[in-house]
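Q: How would the structure tokens look for this protein?
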Amino acid sequence: MRRGRNLALAAALLGAAVVVTGLASRLPSGTGATPARAGTPYSSRWLCPVLAGKGTLTVVNAGDQPATVRAALSTTAAGAGGPPTVKALPAGAPLAPGAARAIALSPTLPSLLEVESFGSPVAVRPSAQPSCASGPSTRLWLPALDPPDRGTADIVLANPGRDGAVVQLILHHADDPYFPGKLRRLLVPGRGAIRVPMAEYRGLIMSVQAVALLGRVVAGAVRTQPGRQPLLIAAQTDVRGAWSFAGAQAGAGDQTQAVLTNPGGDPLAVDVRVVSAKQAFIPPGFEDLEIPPGATKRVQLNAKTPGEGALGVEIRSRTGSPFTAALLVQTGRGGQYLDIGTDRPWQTWVLPTLAKGQQVVLANLGNSPVAAKIEGLGRAATGEPAMPVQVPPGRVVVKAPPPAVAAAGGLLVRADHTGIVAAPVGLGQALPGQVLAGLSLPGPVTAGPAAG
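A: Here is the predicted structure in token form.
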């Protein structure tokens, strides 16, 4: 009954809880596990909030050594007071450098999926589920989460800690923030997850802020509507004064909206710069745009602009005040996806998976040329050649990987200096290389619950 007491204690402490204002993305502590084996370094951990349903998790070895992968689903039934149900997932033999493997998922309840690797870092990408996070946070943002007139919008909150967490959801829409009473004290059991349906808030064009009043959590959301593929919403863990993107699309029926949320107490004004394959320009519609405190606005990014195809985007606060930004892209073929951006250009990018024939866009948002190389993950071990790419300042370059590289699965993009934003053209995932560079932790390294 320890878990029931923990949740009761969480509720009792809520009145005295102090909202943690520092934004964090740190690794959760291990829970009763044994130390990792000597000679098998603990390389990466991913935490995934998972809704009930069938799907797959693709795991890709992003390093140059074999990776031993361990994965586990942790679930706590609603109202249960006992320990969580932990199910180890078959992860197979060690993954060779650059190799990928699909792990079947079929949770019957909202769950926490934890993936750990030993020997080499891995990248993970779930299908039909929100993206995974490298660690839990006390404050998270879920942009563009307005429930459709027909369809669903569900948030999943997962808690990797031993004890219960208390979470408040704040709805940011066109006016003041909205604090629904039923969303003020959401109890997320330790090593478990909950689903929060948002259908009753139809009519609000909104982004949602999740504040952990006690504990730390990971979060995501899925929005569905007839005739379109589900919109998978990954959580943002920071507010920033500037955002960079490479996932915008224009022309041929494609539409891109900038989703901007102002968490501050003063009005927010932003400057927006767009780069295409031919030019850099400032799109109309932002000159006199002012976002009230606590509000969310959406602005059509590519209306009456000369850019077509893949676009890079930079959005900056005029005063340096932090805010959140994302790009909502709707394609002329009925697809949709959300680009949650990055705080700045990086030197290295990892694209864990690419669909057959999918291209890669490299956006140079800076003022100097960038020399980059596209290569297959694990190239050092496989010997596959790299593709050199020159990216002029203020331009995007779209490339199809060589067949030999594309057939291997994931890609690595390396630039000669910091200054590039990479993304697949269309639905997909790109991660800054620093996310996968392994973890430098003080003291002895312990394996998490996925290690058994």
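The radius of gyration is 21 Å.

The domain at 139-234 is CATH 2.60.290.11 (Hypothetical Protein Tm1070; Chain: A).

Upvote if useful.
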